Amino acid sequence: MVLSVPTARTVPVLQVLQVLMVLAVLPVLGACGDLRVKMGVYNTLADAKHAGAIESGWVPHGVPASASDLREGHLPDGRHWGVFAFSAADEAAVRALVGEELTSGTLTCDTPGRLEFWPRVLLTPVDVARVRSTGFRIYHGHDGRHYAINWGQARAYYWKT
């Protein structure tokens, strides 16, 4: 059995390799985003209500009772992002959530890392005209949120930052 003892010449090489490994890992850690984000996934609005997501403000008051496939992500400072599906019969209830439609301009929507349900077209900078070309309509909400709604697909995304 042969044992090798580090020499003055091999120690710097080992240190350089360690530094390179740390530098390689840093971008991966940065891509994880904000680890403080909490997620909620609910089949129905009743599930979201039972979990406290409406009372906490992560799911808007006024979402139709028949809404489904609700997802939300939120940070301790109150910023949040979410989505829900609705039926064509509930279009009036969804329209009651929103105010003025935006037709041009740029919005900010900084999500914490990558929320798996969040569409890339709604990441900062949000070019309203470009988003409209994908079928979404963007609105100021009566509750201080922004809403991006695809009426044809019956899906509503919302955020508050």
Give a short summary of the structure.
By secondary structure, the protein is an alpha+beta fold. The chain has helices at 10-31, 45-50, 91-95, 128-132, and strands at 38-44, 68-74, 80-85, 98-102, 106-107, 126-127, 137-141, 146-150, 155-160.
Q: Could you say which structural class the secondary elements and strand pairing correspond to? A: alpha+beta
Lateral strand order in the biggest sheet = 1-2-3-9-8-7-4
Helix amount: 10-25%
Give the rounded overall mean pLDDT.
Answer: 87
User: What is the rounded distance between the termini?
Assistant: 63 Å
* Low-confidence sequence ranges: 19-33
Give helix and strand order, one letter per element, not per position.
HEHEEHEEEHEEE
Give the number of DSSP strands.
Answer: 9
